[in-house]
Write a structure and sequence with these properties.
Elements: H1 2-37, E1 48-49, E2 56-60, E3 65-72, E4 79-83, E5 88-92, E6 95-96, E7 103-106, E8 113-118, E9 127-133, E10 139-148, E11 151-154, E12 159-163, E13 168-175, E14 184-188, E15 191-192, E16 201-206, E17 211-216, E18 225-231, E19 237-244, H2 257-298, H3 304-329
Parallel strand pairs: 2-10, 12-19
Antiparallel strand pairs: 1-3, 3-8, 4-5, 4-9, 5-6, 7-8, 9-10, 11-13, 13-17, 14-15, 14-18, 16-17, 18-19
Helix pairs in contact: 2-3
Length: 330
Amino acid sequence: MILTIYHQQHRLGCHINMQLLLLILLEMRTIYGDVSSHYWESPYSQPYFDNSSRREVTAIVGQAALLQCRVRNLGDRAVSWIRKRDLHILTVGILTYTNDQRFQSLHTEGSDEWTLRISSPQPRDSGTYECQVSTEPKISQGFRLNVVVSRAKILGNPELFIKSGSDINLTCLAMQSPIPPSFIYWYKGKRLMNYSQRGGINVITERTTRTSKLLISKATSNDSGNYTCSPSSSDSASVVVHVINGEHPAAMQHGNNSASSQTQSLSKTLQQLSRNTVAAFFSVSALYHLLQALVQIFATTNCYVVIVGVALSLQWPRLTQNARRRIVAR
């Protein structure tokens, strides 16, 4: 009896377990069926942009610019690059859709990166570019490109006068360079100074601050010449250095004192000439007013015409000669 009850309970338990298993299988089929039929409608499976990419890029004229767009869950969608100012399609996938062959789409199979490469960019290429994905509706991400002209600059005047025996100290800045230059070379004429065998020459370059200093101790006349600073990522800059002897102390202050003294001398000459001109004007003006007063006085008499005529004929040469002497004396 007990054994019969045990067998009945065992069959009932197995029946219940089978029903639970069938219910679980049906539920799993329903769930996976929904995922399979609406895969692209799920918000977690739609393409989206990886915002870790740099959205603003600065490039140097002539050096390739790269705009990197990262798209997750792309699936069978296509990625296009569009120039926003004129809505011109530049690339679709890895194909170029413009006659300007400087534009190229770079992509490695299996990666999420779609890079727009612009060879030899110019300032006119500055602007916004959109990375667009062919979803419905389309999604896009904008990238700002700034193309700049990077120029080196040597601090101070373009022409320097150094006293013989003094030190030459030149400082160069690689201005507007988006990345630190990999090197900054100094030249004297066409000769590289960074590795010069001449003693007393030292080049100190700091890549992080984009600066380089050329130090030449105890300069001689042989150190005179054209010095050029040439960074790897910038246009070069030059300065002319004159090493002169001590008998010309007026030209020591960066080559500007001589020019300043000449300018001051010219200014004084012009001021003196201006005063002389004004004095001459007032002398002639006074003579004219004197004659006008005499005419008015003699106009009240009957003989004013004769008197004025005689006075003018006799006194005019002497008066004009005195006026000239006064102008010269001043």
